[in-house]
């Protein structure tokens, strides 16, 4: 009887664990390749995302780029370009403010996502 009870408990745990994973498994969608261009030379207003992770460490549309090269690309882009700016939480508010002024100085309109706790 002891072995039967142990088998029943083990089977119940396996079934419950499998059932609890199913919703997450079904919710996953296959990754679709991006249809937007990832060229750094001509960023479009609809696909420009800037992430700052350090004073001179930036990512533009997922590609690493330094501050100087980013400034050159922004100066060469269309006027009044709009971008989503995502600063790292490790940056101070002063660093973020300086970066915002720097981006706006290059003719960029910046949109920031709402902050989350």
Explain this structure:
With 117 residues, this protein is α/β, with parallel strands linked by helices. Helix content is 42%, strand content 20%. It has 3 helices and 5 strands, in the order αβββαβαβ. Strands 3-2-1-4-5 form a 5-stranded mixed β-sheet, with helices on one face. The termini are far apart. Residues 33-45 have low confidence and may be disordered.
Tell me the layout of helices and strands.
Blueprint (H helix, E strand, L loop, with lengths): L1 H26 L21 E4 L4 E4 L2 E4 H10 L4 E7 L5 H13 L2 E4 L6
Parallel strand pairs: 1-4, 4-5
Antiparallel strand pairs: 1-2, 2-3
Work out the helicity level.
40-55%
Widest β-sheet, arrangement of strands: 3-2-1-4-5
What proportion strand?
Answer: 15-25%
Sketch the topology as an H/E string, one letter per element: HEEEHEHE
Average pLDDT figure: 76
E-strand count:
5
Number of helices: 3
Overall structural class, as computed from helix and strand content, comes to alpha/beta
The unreliable regions are 33-45
Radius of gyration: 24 Å
Distance between the termini: 52 Å
What does the overall shape look like?
rod-shaped
């Amino acid at each position: 009887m002891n072995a039967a009870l142990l088998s029943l408990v083990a089977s119940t745990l396996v079934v419950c664990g499998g059932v609890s994973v199913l919703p997450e498994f079904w919710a996953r969608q296959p990754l679709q390749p991006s249809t937007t261009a990832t060229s750094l030379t001509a960023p479009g207003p609809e696909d420009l995302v800037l992430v700052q992770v350090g004073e001179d460490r930036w990512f533009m549309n997922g590609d690493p780029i330094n501050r100087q090269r980013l400034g050159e690309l922004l100066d060469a882009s269309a006027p009044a370009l709009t971008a989503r700016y995502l600063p790292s939480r490790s940056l101070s508010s002063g660093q973020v403010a300086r970066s915002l002024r720097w981006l706006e100085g290059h003719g960029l309109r910046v949109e920031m996502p709402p902050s989350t706790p």
